[in-house]
C-alpha cells in the first residue's frame, strides 16, 4: 500500500516539547513494518480545528491525484479536530478517492459504516477535547489578568522581559507610535500617507510594508497609553492599567479618537479623486428630514472635486417617500463666507443672524419655558415613583417596568439638558452678556478665513466653532455653543447650478 504520513502539533512550543520528529520516527517504523511504500511525509504546526493548512492541503492534492492508498497518523485527532461540516468535507475527499485513515494498530475504511461511525465518534471526542483545552487556557489567562499579569505578544514598541516578567520599551521600535501620532494630529496626514512616510524609513519589524490597516490598528489601540484590554468569548472584558510603559498619553489617545470621528464624516467616492481638506470635514451633520447621519461626499477628479452633503444610502421615511437629500456645497459656500464677513463687519449686519436686545418680554418668555420644563421633569419623577409602586403591587412584570422606566428616564434626560441650556441663556440675558462683543470674540478666528489658513487649518477652526449641523433641502443649520448655550445659525441653500450631478450614483 502507498502511504502518506501526516504529523501535526498545534504550536511551536509543542513542536519542541512533543516533537514532530518523534511522530515521524514512530510512524515511519510502523509503515515499514507493514511493508507499505512511503510516498510523502507532510507536517503542520497549526490547530487541528483548521482545515486550511499547508501540509494538509498538499496531502489532499496527492489524494485527488491518486498517489496514495492510506493516510497514516499517530492519532486521528492529528488529522482532524474539525467541526462537522469540514470533517464531512475531508472524509468525502478521502472516501471518493478510496483512501483509508490509519493509526498504528488500526485502519479505518470510510466506505464501511461501522468504521465511519467509529471515526465520527473520535472526531466528536477530539472536538470536545479541543474545547476543553481552550476553556482551560482561557481560565488560566483570565486568572492571570485578574492578578494584574499580562500575556500575549508584545505590541509594537515593546518587548517582554523574561527576568522581570513585565513588558518594557523596545528601544529599536519605540519611536514609531509618537511618529504616527505627530503625522496624524499635527501634520493632518491620512493613514495611507503615514504608511508611505514610514515605508521611506523602514518596514515593519516582521519585514512587511506599512499599510492603512496597520496604521489604523495603532491609532485605535489602548496599549500605547498602557492599557491591556482583553474580551473573552463569554463577553467578559478584563482590563489591566499600566500593563505597558506609555508611548502616548491618554489625552493624546482621546484626541486621536475624536479626530478619527471627525474625519469619518467625509466619504471618498472614487479612488482617482485626491481627498482635499474641505472645511466642513470636521463638522458632524444630521438630516433634518429623517435624523440620520449626513456624509460629506467627494465626486469629480483631483483637479476639479465636487463635494456633496448626502446620505450614504436611501431610506424610506414616515410618508413612504425616499429620504435622498443631496446638496452640492457650492450652493451654500458663498453664503457661509458672506455670513462670516457680515458678522465680523458690524453689529447691525450681525443682527440679521442674532437678536441682541434682551428686553423684558423675551426674558419672561424664557422664564416661562424654564418653569414649564421644571414641571415636566417633576411630573416624570412622580411617574417613576408610581411605576415602582405598581410593579410592587404586581400590576406588571419586571421587563415592563424596566422598559417604561427607560423611556421616562430618556425623556427626562432630554428635558434636563434643555432646562440647563435655557437657564444658562437666561443668565446671559439677565446680565446683558449676550451682546455683539461676545459674538465677535467667538467668531474672530474666522476673519480672513479663506486667505490666512491652509485647508487643514480651516477644517480645524470651522469644526471647533461648529461641531454639529443639521441639513434641510433649503437651509443648513450650523450649531455653535457660547457659555454652554447652543447657538444656531441658519444658512440659505441656493438652487443647484449642476442639477444633473446630484443624481449620479455613489
UniProtKB/TrEMBL annotation:
<dbReference type="InterPro" id="IPR011109">
    <property type="entry name" value="DNA_bind_recombinase_dom"/>
</dbReference>
<keyword id="KW-0175">Coiled coil</keyword>
<feature type="coiled-coil region">
    <location>
        <begin position="356"/>
        <end position="432"/>
    </location>
</feature>
<dbReference type="InterPro" id="IPR006118">
    <property type="entry name" value="Recombinase_CS"/>
</dbReference>
<dbReference type="Pfam" id="PF07508">
    <property type="entry name" value="Recombinase"/>
</dbReference>
<dbReference type="InterPro" id="IPR006119">
    <property type="entry name" value="Resolv_N"/>
</dbReference>
<feature type="domain" description="Recombinase">
    <location>
        <begin position="155"/>
        <end position="266"/>
    </location>
</feature>
<dbReference type="InterPro" id="IPR038109">
    <property type="entry name" value="DNA_bind_recomb_sf"/>
</dbReference>
<feature type="active site" description="O-(5'-phospho-DNA)-serine intermediate">
    <location>
        <position position="10"/>
    </location>
</feature>
<dbReference type="Pfam" id="PF00239">
    <property type="entry name" value="Resolvase"/>
</dbReference>
<dbReference type="InterPro" id="IPR036162">
    <property type="entry name" value="Resolvase-like_N_sf"/>
</dbReference>
<protein>
    <submittedName>
        <fullName>Serine recombinase</fullName>
    </submittedName>
</protein>
<dbReference type="InterPro" id="IPR050639">
    <property type="entry name" value="SSR_resolvase"/>
</dbReference>
<keyword id="KW-0238">DNA-binding</keyword>
<keyword id="KW-0233">DNA recombination</keyword>
<keyword id="KW-0229">DNA integration</keyword>
<feature type="domain" description="Resolvase/invertase-type recombinase catalytic">
    <location>
        <begin position="2"/>
        <end position="148"/>
    </location>
</feature>
Amino acid at each position: 500500500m502507498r502511504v502518506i504520513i501526516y504529523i501535526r502539533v498545534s504550536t511551536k512550543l509543542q513542536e519542541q516539547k512533543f516533537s514532530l520528529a518523534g511522530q515521524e520516527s514512530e510512524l515511519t517504523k510502523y509503515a515499514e513494518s507493514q511493508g507499505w511504500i512511503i510516498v510523502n511525509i507532510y507536517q503542520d504546526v497549526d490547530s487541528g480545528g483548521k482545515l486550511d493548512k499547508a501540509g494538509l492541503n498538499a496531502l489532499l492534492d496527492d489524494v485527488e491525484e491518486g498517489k496514495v492508498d492510506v493516510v497514516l497518523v499517530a492519532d486521528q485527532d492529528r488529522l482532524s479536530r474539525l467541526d462537522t461540516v469540514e470533517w464531512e468535507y475531508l472524509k468525502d475527499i478521502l472516501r471518493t478517492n478510496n483512501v483509508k485513515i490509519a493509526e498504528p494498530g488500526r485502519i479505518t475504511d470510510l466506505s464501511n459504516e461501522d468504521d465511519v461511525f467509529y471515526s465520527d465518534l473520535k472526531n466528536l471526542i477530539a472536538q470536545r477535547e479541543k474545547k476543553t483545552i481552550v476553556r482551560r487556557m482561557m481560565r488560566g489567562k483570565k486568572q492571570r489578568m485578574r492578578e494584574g499579569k499580562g500575556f500575549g505578544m508584545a505590541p509594537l514598541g515593546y518587548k517582554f522581559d523574561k527576568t522581570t516578567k513585565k513588558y518594557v520599551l523596545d528601544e529599536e521600535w519605540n519611536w514609531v507610535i509618537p511618529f504616527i501620532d505627530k503625522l496624524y494630529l499635527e501634520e493632518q496626514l491620512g493613514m495611507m500617507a503615514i504608511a508611505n512616510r514610514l515605508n521611506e524609513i523602514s518596514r515593519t519589524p516582521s519585514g512587511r510594508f506599512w499599510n492603512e490597516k496597520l496604521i489604523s490598528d495603532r491609532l485605535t489601540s489602548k496599549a500605547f497609553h498602557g492599557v491591556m484590554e482583553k474580551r473573552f468569548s463569554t463577553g467578559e472584558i478584563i482590563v489591566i492599567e499600566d500593563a505597558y510603559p506609555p508611548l502616548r498619553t491618554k489625552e493624546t489617545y482621546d484626541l486621536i479618537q475624536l479626530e478619527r470621528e471627525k474625519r469619518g464624516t467625509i466619504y471618498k467616492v472614487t479612488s482617482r479623486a485626491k481627498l482635499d481638506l474641505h472645511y466642513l470635514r470636521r463638522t458632524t451633520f444630521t438630516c433634518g428630514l429623517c435624523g440620520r447621519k449626513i456624509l460629506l461626499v467627494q465626486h469629480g477628479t483631483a483637479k476639479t472635486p465636487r463635494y456633496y452633503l448626502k446620505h450614504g444610502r436611501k431610506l424610506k421615511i414616515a410618508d413612504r417617500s425616499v429620504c435622498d437629500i443631496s446638496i452640492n456645497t457650492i450652493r451654500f459656500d458663498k453664503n457661509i463666507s458672506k455670513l462670516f464677513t457680515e458678522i465680523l463687519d458690524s453689529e447691525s449686519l450681525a443682527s440679521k443672524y442674532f437678536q441682541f436686545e434682551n428686553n423684558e418680554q423675551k426674558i419672561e418668555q424664557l422664564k416661562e419655558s424654564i418653569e414649564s420644563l421644571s414641571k415636566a421633569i417633576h411630573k416624570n419623577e412622580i411617574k417613576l415613583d408610581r411605576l415602582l409602586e405598581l410593579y410592587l403591587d404586581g400590576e406588571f412584570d419586571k421587563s415592563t417596568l424596566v422598559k417604561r422606566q427607560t423611556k421616562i428616564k430618556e425623556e427626562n434626560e432630554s428635558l434636563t439638558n434643555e432646562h440647563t441650556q435655557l437657564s444658562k441663556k437666561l443668565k446671559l440675558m439677565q446680565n446683558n452678556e449676550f451682546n455683539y462683543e461676545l459674538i465677535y470674540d467667538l467668531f474672530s478666528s474666522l476673519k480672513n478665513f479663506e486667505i490666512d489658513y491652509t485647508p487643514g487649518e480651516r477644517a480645524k477652526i470651522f469644526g471647533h466653532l461648529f461641531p454639529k449641523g443639521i441639513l434641510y433641502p433649503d437651509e443648513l443649520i450650523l450649531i455653535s455653543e457660547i457659555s454652554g448655550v447652543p447657538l444656531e445659525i441658519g444658512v440659505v441653500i441656493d438652487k443647484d447650478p449642476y442639477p444633473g450631478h446630484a443624481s449620479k450614483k455613489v
